[in-house]
Amino acid sequence: MTGYLTTHVLDTARGCPAEGIKIALYRVTGNSHKKIAETVTNDDGRTDAPILPADKFKTGTYELVFFAGDYLRATGQVEGEVLFLDQVPIRFGMSDPAAHYHVPLLLSPYGMSTYRGS
User: Fold this and answer.
1) Helix, strand, or coil here: 31?
2) 5 near 101, Cβ under 8 Å?
């Protein structure tokens, strides 16, 4: 079995999945970031397919960037040019070449959290 990466976003302020959040995935090597994928969450707050599917999976250090500010503005939760949370980066490592890694984001206008999900 080959590993893969999935993610999803829950809007904890509104108590629902966060639909329409753009997410970019970068592979990190030293100080270098290389974008390898970009997607948008669906009506369940998930991506339609793994953001890093099995055929492209490699162990290493990665960064997911969630464009939360666009979503928070669109849902009327915040306004203005400068937001407390705008682009939310989560850097993490994947060391098991056969594992399913799941990195969710729990989001509100003034707080966020993540964990290794299943």
Assistant:
1) coil
2) yes
Whole-number Å distance between alpha carbons of 66 and 96: 24
- Taking the C-alpha atoms of residue 4 and residue 54, their distance in angstroms, rounded to an integer, is 5
Assigned token pair, 108: 């509100």
Q: For residue range 52-74, what is the model confidence (pLDDT) as tens digits?
A: 999 999 999 999 999 999 999 99
List, as own/partner pairs, every contact residues 15-20 make where C-beta atoms lie below 8 angstroms and the sequence separation is at least 24, other chains included. Answer: 16/45, 17/41, 17/43, 17/44, 17/45, 17/46, 18/45, 18/71, 18/105, 18/107, 19/43, 19/44, 19/45, 20/71, 20/74
Global confidence as pTM? 0.94
Cα 102 to Cα 57: distance, rounded to the nearest angstrom: 13
Rounded distance between C-alpha atoms, residue 111 and residue 1, angstroms: 36
